[in-house]
Write a structure and sequence with these properties.
By secondary structure, the protein is α+β, with helices and mostly antiparallel strands. The protein has one domain: Gcn5-related N-acetyltransferase (GNAT) (Aminopeptidase, 3-Layer(aba) Sandwich), CATH 3.40.630.30. The chain is built from 5 helices and 8 strands, in the order ββαααβββαβαββ. An 8-stranded mixed β-sheet has the order 1-2-3-4-5-6-8-7, with helices on both faces. Strand 7 and strand 8 form a beta hairpin. The chain is globular, with a radius of gyration of 16 Å. Bound molecules: coenzyme A. The site of coenzyme A has 23 residues, from helix 2, strand 5, helix 4 and helix 5. GO terms for molecular function: protein N-terminal-serine acetyltransferase activity; protein-N-terminal-alanine acetyltransferase activity. Keywords: Transferase. This is Ribosomal-protein-alanine N-acetyltransferase. InterPro entries: Acyl_CoA_acyltransferase (IPR016181), GNAT_dom (IPR000182), Ribosomal_N-acetyltransferase (IPR051908).
């Protein structure tokens, strides 16, 4: 981790995927993605309805890594640049971080989320020098549990009514994590 806390923008390749920093031009695709009912439920943005302005602010916040607290990447098809999803390290601090993700409906079921999570996690350990990355998902979201398992995040326990999701209800969550020292 740089002493300044600054995390420099990166592009990460993973076979037919390219993980790259967000751009203003992604805003229309992000607007559509954030309106997807499953993403609205499990990756709630809070606040205002998702319109063009909200989507543009969303990509600009994620493109600005200057605080050192997050590293957020668009997951795209390397061949044609199509937006497939989002993967982010949040709360980067003192060797720890949390990871979050979504994929657009058309990209689901192709291991896009698993491969993006694995690639970003490998980078977090190898290049950012992190030691522990946590992943939380609602117990009611089994697809996300599968992503966590397949990406090598060990289940560590259940957090009771720990997070308020898109429908305004609190849900139990599974906490998973990977350590840099895991095999
Ligand atoms: C969860 C999500 C990211 C998975 O994305 P994806 O690109 O389809 O994931 P992958 O293809 O990498 O892997 C999905 C795995 O989940 C499994 N899966 C999909 N839907 C499932 C369901 N309803 N129940 C159980 N498993 C399910 C798939 O079979 C696959 O497992 P497999 O590799 O053993 O076949 C995507 O569905 C999504 O964005 N959902 C809405 C938002 C969300 O849940 N975000 C995560 C918040 S923690």
């Amino acid at each position: 981790m740089p002493d300044s806390g600054l995390v420099e923008h990166v592009e990460l390749s993973a076979a037919d995927l390219l993980l790259r920093p967000w751009r203003d031009a992604d805003a229309p695709a992000v607007r559509d993605a954030l309106r997807d009912p499953a993403i609205a439920q499990w990756n709630p943005q809070g606040g205002d309805p998702i319109d063009d302005e909200v989507a543009l602010l969303w990509v600009r916040r994620r493109a600005d890594w200057s605080t050192g607290g997050h590293a957020s990447l668009a997951v795209t098809a390397a061949a044609d640049g199509e937006l497939l999803g989002s993967v982010s390290l949040h709360r980067i601090h003192d060797g720890d971080a949390s990871i979050g993700y979504w994929t657009v409906p058309a990209a689901r079921g192709r291991q896009v989320a698993v491969r993006a999570v694995v690639r970003l996690t490998d980078w977090a350990f190898a290049d950012l020098g992190l030691h522990r990355v946590e992943l939380c998902h609602a117990v009611a979201n089994p697809a996300s549990c599968r992503v966590a398992d397949r990406a090598g995040y060990l289940a560590e326990g259940t957090l009771r009514e720990s997070y308020r999701y898109g429908d305004g209800r609190r849900y139990d969550e599974h906490l998973h994590a990977r350590l840099a020292t895991d095999r």
